[in-house]
Amino acid sequence: MFYIIGLGLSDEKDITLRGLEAIKRSTRVYLEAYTSILMVEKDRLEALYERPLILADREMVETQSDEILARADTEDISLLVVGDPFGATTHTDILLRARALKIPTRVIHNASIMNAIGACGLQLYNFGQTVSLVFFTDTWKPDSFYDRVKENVDLGMHTLVLLDIKVKEQSEENLARGRKIYEPPRYMSIPTAVAQLIETEKTRNEGILSPNSTLAIALSRVGGGEQECIVAGTLKELLNRPAESYGQPLHSLVIVGKRLHHLEVSYAEEFAVNQKSWRDTARDAYGCALE
């Protein structure tokens, strides 16, 4: 059996009992280590799970999946992923490869940012499409995400924006020369994300991301207890705060939709940079009837 097991969002204790049982039955256990990060070191996972973990980087998961799936038709093999197994298309792809090889598969779910985002006080059924925001460069500033955000805005829905991470990336020069030299990990900060959103708005000029009247909520280390950090405000307010005030990565951002309920306003007000500004913007720009 080939298992893909969600680890949740925080530490080694977020594993489900069903997931832990599958790990302990497995002859090999891989830890997918590039689509997200966990808040603890690998050795803490190994201590609780009582199994050595094999780090599976992008190259192994995407191009060397045969190594991971070897003998999974006769043995139990597990691939551990941060959050939920279906949080990245990479995991869907490896499941399809396993099925093509007639290997039995099983998915064991866990919490992910897609449902834990409710910690900010916005109601999950008011979220529209989720988008990813990549690091801009001097020559590459993709804006396809903007179309999805606009569709959500037109429907009044909230938008979850997943911020870029760069793990085990090569520079253009090293890639061209075939040198396996990797750049230090980089994680997009909230101010960088907001700056890119505002830059894209200036380019597209469709009026959906006004710095002064668009509310947003920044989150980091969701589900991490004392490490969790949530900050709410206008885009301009979030842009003007120092990056370190948002806590440690990973970070996410929610663009608040116009179908904003007064209970959502009240709940998220606790996290606001300026509570009066938060309520005034919700009333004046969003038409939210506050009690």
Question: How would you describe this protein?
Answer:
The protein is an alpha/beta fold and 291 residues long. Helices cover 34% and strands 18% of the residues. The strands form 3 sheets. It has a 5-stranded parallel β-sheet with strand order 3-2-4-1-5, sandwiched between helices. The chain has a 5-stranded mixed β-sheet with strand order 6-7-12-10-11. Strands 8-9 form a two-stranded antiparallel ribbon. Helix 7 links the parallel strand 6 and strand 7. The longest helix is centred in the last third of the chain and has 15 residues. It is an enzyme of class 2 (transferase).
Summarize it.
This protein is 34% helix and 18% strand.
Sequence-ordered SSE layout with sheet pairings:
Elements lengths: L1 E5 L10 H9 L2 E5 L9 H8 L4 E3 L1 H6 L1 H5 L7 E5 L7 H12 L4 E4 L4 H4 L14 E3 L10 H12 L3 E5 L1 E2 L5 H6 L8 E2 L2 H15 L10 E6 L8 E6 H5 L11 E5 L6 H8 L5 H10 L7
Parallel strand pairs: 1-4, 1-5, 2-3, 2-4, 6-7
Antiparallel strand pairs: 7-12, 8-9, 10-11, 10-12
